[in-house]
Amino acid sequence: MKSMYKNAVMALVLFAGLTLVSCNQGGSNNGGALKSSAAEKVFVAPGEYDSHYAFISGGFSGQLSVYGLPSGRLFKVIPVFSVDAEKAYGFNEETRDMLKTSHGYIPWGDSHHPDISQTNGVVDGRWVFINENNTPRIARVSLETYETAEIIEIPNSAGNHSSSFVTENTEYVVAGTRFSVPIPQRDISIKDYKGNFKAALSFIKVDPESGNMDLDFQVLMPGFDYDLSHPGRGKSHGWFFFSTYNTEEAHTLLEVNASQNDKDFIAAVNWKKAQEYIKQGKFKTMPAKYVHNVYSDETHSTISTTKKSVRVLDASKLPGLVYLMPTPKSPHGCDVDPSGEYIVGSGKLSASMTVHSFSKMLKAIENKEFDGEAYGIPILKFESTLAGTVEQPGLGPLHTEFDGKGNAYTTFFISSEVVKWKLGTWEVVDRKPTYYSVGHLMIPGGNSRKPFGKYLVAMNKITKDRYLPTGPEVTQSAQLYDISGEKMELLLDFPTVGEPHYAAGAPAEVVKGFSKKFFKLEENKHPYATKSEDDVRVVRDGKNVHVYMTAIRSHFAPDNIEGIKVGDRVYFHVTNLEQDYDVPHGISMIGANTSELLIMPGQTETFVWEPKQVGVWPFYCTDFCSALHQEMQGYVRVSPRNSNVKLSWSLDDE
Amino acid sequence: MKKSKILMITGSLLLLTLFALPLWNITLEAPQYPDPLGLDIHIDKLADGNNPNDVRNIDLLNHYIGMDRLPEDMLEFKIFPIVVLVMAILGVLAGLSGKPRLYLTWVIIMAILGVAGIYDFYSWLYHYGHNLNPHAILKFVDKNGNPMAYDPPVFGTKQLLNFTVHSYPASGAYTMMVGIVMAIWAFVTGKKEG
C-alpha cells in the first residue's frame, strides 16, 4: 500500500513536470487564425454589453468582484467581508456593524464560494450568497444594489468552507465546517481530538421575499473535515452532499496523517428528514453566541443582533438523517449533475474519479447495504452507490461543473488542466491546459438544473509568467473557454481580484433587470437624513456635534460651519439630494481618521471627525460629480476648547 | 340622434382628455443622458416627461446657466383648465342644438384659442431662455458676442449647448386635434343633413 502511494507521488511529480513543458509550448503556439477567431469571440464593442455576468470570489481579499463575460472586464468589487475605504464599507457609521461578530469587529475575511439564488432549480439573479472561511459567516449580496445586504455568523463552526450553496428554491443556504472543534467550545487537550471534536453542518433558512437569513438548525457530525458540498436537485432535491477528509481524525501533520485512509466519505444529509425531526422536537437547543447583521436600504443603516442559541440535530442518534458514501482518497469537490442523479467525488489524491448514483444510494439505503457505521451513522457499501469511475482523467481532480448536455468538466490542480468527460459512459473526450494550477471552474448556472453551457471560466491559483511581472506577488487569474463545440477552446486570460475560489454566473438578462438606479429620497428613513436644503442644521449635544448636511451639484449645504471646538466629536450626516442615475457625491475632511464617504443619490451616510487642532479646515467632494466639482468644497472653523464662538452654519452667507 | 350631433358632442368631449394627457413635450438629449430628459406640459402643470424626477433634473442643469426654476404655479395653469372645460361644455351644447353654424363658430373659437395658446407658450419659452441670472455659473455668448439664449423651439428640434432639444405636440394635443376635426366633420355632415 505504502509503495503504491510512493509510486503515485512519483507519477504526479513526473506528470506535473511534463505538463509544464507542454504548457509552455502550447502558450507559444497560440497564434495565427485561431487567435483572431478567439479575439472576435471575446470582443465586446465599445458601448455594447457582455452576454453574461460572473460573480467571482475575491478569496483572501474578502470581497466579491463582478465581471462581464466574454470580455473579462471588471465592473465592480463589492466589499463583503473586508473593509473598503473607497466605498466607506466598514468605516462609516452605517456599515461598521456589518463586520461585527461574536469576536468583535473584524476588518477582514476570506471569501470563498459565491452562489446565486434559485427558483425551481434555475438561477434567478436576485442575490449572491458567499461564505467567509476564517471567522465563519455567510453573506447575502443584493443584486439590486450590488451591496452586502446581510451577514450571519455561524456558531460551532471553524473554517467555513463547505459553504455557501443554495437548495433549488433557495429554501436554505448551507454552510459546513472544514475544521472540527469541541462543541460547545471548551478547554481540552488537542490530543483528545478523536471522539471529542465535532462538526456542525448549518442550514440557514432564506425568506423567499426579503432574502433574510435565519439559522434554522445544525446537524451535528463526527469530527471529520467537511470540504465542499452541493445540493441535490430534481429527484435528489431534499438531500445535501458533503465531501469529507481527515476521517482519520488526525489533529497534527494532516498532510500525512489525514491521507492514510483509502476512502473517506461523501455524507448525504436528508434535510427534509431533518425538518421532520425539528417538527417532532427531536432537536437539542444548545447555547451559542453568534451575530446577525442586516443592512436596510431604507434606513441605509445596519441592525446588528446577537443570538444566544441554536437548534442541533445529532446525526449519530437520529436514524435516516445522514448516510456516508465511501469515496476514495480525500475527496475535495462534491458536485451534483443537473439531473440530480450523479454525485461526483473528486478524490484529490486518487488516480480516478468516483461518481455516485443517487437512485442506487436510495436502493442501498432501502436494502440496508451497509458496511459498518461511523459514530452511529451508517456507511453504505462502496459498490452499492457507485455509478461509475472516470479512469485516469488527470492528476489532482478538484471541481466539476456541467454543461447541461451530458458533459462534465473537471479541473485538475496538479496536471493543470480542464478535462471534459461524458456522464454515463465516463469517457474522457477532451482536455485543455490551464495556466497554471487551476482550482475552481464555473459554467454559468453550473450549480443548478439548467446550466448555460456556452462558457467555462477556470480559476487559477498561480500565474507565474502569464502576465507582465509585478514583483514577487503576481496576479491570480481566470481563463475563459468556449465549450459550445465538441472541443474546448481557450479564448481569454484575465486577472482577478484576490485568489478566485469559485464563481457564479448567469446570462445578463436574468440579472441586469434587478439593478437599481438610485434610492428614492422620499423613502429615506435614515434617522439623520436631511431631505431638503431648508432643513440643514448643526446641533450640539455636549461634545458631540451633529451636522445635518446635504450634497447636490455642485455644493454642500451648509458649506461654512463655525463654533466647533478642539475635542469635539463631529458627525457629518450627509444626504445626497440627487435623484438621477449615476450621480454619487463623495466627501472627505482633512484629518478625519476614517475613509471618505461615497454617497449614492437619495442615500445618507455618516463619518466622524475629531478635530485636534485649532484652525480653519476644508472638506470637499471626492467624486467628480459635475463641471463644478472642483468648487464643491467648504470650511469648518475649529476654536479652542474654552472659546465662546457661537455654533453657526451657512451657505452663501445665508 | 343625427350623425352630426354625435360627432360634435364626441369631438368636444375629447377636449376633456387634456385633464389627463400632456399637451406638449420637450425632450433633451445628450451623450451623458442615454435616457433623455423630458418635460411634459399639461394644461395645469409641468410633469416629468420620460422618467421620474425629470423636472427636478432639468432644473438642476438649468441652474448652471442661470435659468429660473420651472414654475409649479402659473396663471396659465389656472386659466387653461377653465377654458378647456368651458369649451367642452359649449361644444356639447352646440352639439345638442344641432345647428351646424354653431359647430363652425366653436371650431373658429378653438382655432383662435389655439393660436393664442401657442403664442403664450412661445413667450413663456422666450422668457425662460433669455431671462438669465447675471451671476450664472456658465455664461456663453453667440457668434455676435451677445449672451447666449436658451429658449427651446416652439416646434421642432434645436441644439442648445450639449443638448439636442425636441419640442413637439404630445398625446393631449393629438386628441384635441381629432376633436376639432370631428367638429369640422360634424359641420360638413350637418350641412348635408340640413
The end-to-end distance of chain B, rounded to whole angstroms, is: 14 Å
CATH class of the largest domain in chain A: Mainly Beta
CATH names the topology of the largest domain in chain A as Methylamine Dehydrogenase, Chain H
Q: What are the secondary-structure elements of chain B, in order, as H or E?
A: HEEEHHHEEH
Oligomer: heterodimer
Low-confidence stretches of chain B: none
Unreliable sequence segments of chain A: 13-33
The CATH superfamily of the largest domain in chain A appears as: YVTN repeat-like/Quinoprotein amine dehydrogenase
Strand content of chain B: 15-25%
Explained architecture:
The complex is a heterodimer of chains A (654) and B (194). Chain A has 654 residues and is mainly beta. Chain A has 2 domains: 2-514, YVTN repeat-like/Quinoprotein amine dehydrogenase (Methylamine Dehydrogenase, Chain H, 7 Propeller); 521-650, Immunoglobulin-like, CATH 2.60.40. Helices cover 11% and strands 43% of the residues of chain A. Chain A has 8 helices and 46 strands. In chain A, the strands form 10 sheets. In chain A, strands 6, 7, 8, 9, 10, 11, 12, 13, 14, 18 and 19 form an 11-stranded mixed sheet that branches. A 6-stranded mixed sheet of chain A has the order 42-41-44-45-39-46, with no helix packed on it. In chain A, strands 36, 37, 38, 40 and 43 form a 5-stranded mixed sheet that branches. In chain A, strand 2 (64-69) and strand 3 (73-78) form a beta hairpin. The longest helix of chain A has 27 residues, at 2-28. With 194 residues, chain B is an alpha+beta fold. Chain B has one domain (3-193). Chain B has a 5-stranded antiparallel sheet. The radius of gyration of chain B is 20 Å and the shape is elongated. The chains are: A mainly beta (654), B alpha+beta (194). The A-B interface holds A 552-553, 578-581, 627-628 and B 35, 52-53, 56-57, 60, 64, 137-138.
